[in-house]
Amino acid sequence: MASGVLVVAIGGNSLIKDRQHMTVPDQYRVLGETSWHIAQLISRGWQVAIAHGNGPQVGFVMRRSELAAHELHQVPMDVCVANTQGAIGYELQQNLANDFRALKIDRQPVSIVTQVEVAADDPAIANPTKPIGAFMDETQARLRLERDGWAIREDAGRGWRHIVPSPRPVRIVEERAIKTLVREDFVVITVGEGGVPVVADENGDLHGIPAVIDKDLAASLLATTLRADIFMITTAVDRVALEWGGPGQRWVDRLSLVEARQYLAEGTHFAAGSMAPKIEACVRFLERGGGAAIITSPEHMEAALAGKAGTRLVA
């Protein structure tokens, strides 16, 4: 039976199959499919911590807040992140508990609303790059720019988006609690959407900021913090491809740390905002002494751990 600590990062976009299936019950059902695969790994003896994205869900909460602004106070972005951490954590907890019961696994999942500290002087805070929320036409975008001071960017010909800072994660504030829970055999759901971004003031007090942290980078930090044996990122594809989308596209089963760094530096292999941050997160885990990282789809997690699917990155 397998053993060791496994950190699994699942994407917020992967909870939404298409525009016709975006409701909470739809997302719950998709989470149920992923949780079943994770439960199978746990049944084989892995101690698991789960990180998850919730970028689309944060956008939904922000949009609801905007639409209700004529009647209710608006919700700050850091609170939107915390809100969706709790909601997705609840859905995942419930699905996992049901799976554990079906598989006769004596384990309990638990969610932590997690803060992740970023550097107050991180240059990214003054340079928004991360699109969030609904698409807008140009007229709406200009209104938001002029009236609300939003940073706006056209997004791949699909419309205009609100863009926010995405600073790098420095410290997981609830680190000690997470370590304790994993050590006591709880299945921990944490650092949702990269964690609620906070900065420390001159007194050491923490304050939320209007930003989002890359989920994969935060999950990589979580894997390092827990000294995980394996760091796994799930995505829509079974394996990583080089020259993605081009005539020379080719799938790869294994990448060394040196190769991964080289391909990242070349800038032509991995899509920015998609596969590139996943590769970077794996690289950072390996650079900090991690054993191995895997990128695969949820349904191939078990096979990937056995070396029969996915892309494995090693030092």
Plain-language structure description:
With 315 residues, this protein is α/β, with parallel strands linked by helices. It folds into 2 domains: 4-117 and 169-310, Acetylglutamate kinase-like (Carbamate kinase, 3-Layer(aba) Sandwich); 128-164, no CATH class. It contains 9 helices and 17 strands. The strands form 4 sheets. Strands 3-9-2-1-12-16-17-15 form an 8-stranded mixed β-sheet, sandwiched between helices. The chain has a 4-stranded mixed β-sheet with strand order 8-4-10-11. It starts with a strand and ends with a strand.
Summarize the structure.
The chain has 315 residues and is α/β, with parallel strands linked by helices. The chain is 38% helix and 23% strand.
The CATH topology annotation of the largest domain reads as Carbamate kinase
Question: From the 3D coordinates, which CATH architecture of the largest domain would you assign?
Answer: 3-Layer(aba) Sandwich
Domain count:
2
Fraction of helical residues: 25-40%
State the helix count: 9
Strands in their spatial order, largest beta sheet? 3-9-2-1-12-16-17-15
Q: What form results from the Cα inertia axes? A: globular
Order of secondary-structure elements: EHEHHEEEHEEEHEEEHEEEEHHEHE
Q: pLDDT under 50 segments (min length 5)?
A: none
Please write the CATH class name of the largest domain: Alpha Beta
Number of strands: 17
Structural class: alpha/beta
Fourth-tier CATH superfamily name of the largest domain: Acetylglutamate kinase-like
| Rg | 19 Å
Main sheet specs: 8 strands, mixed
Q: Alpha-carbon distance between the termini?
A: 25 Å
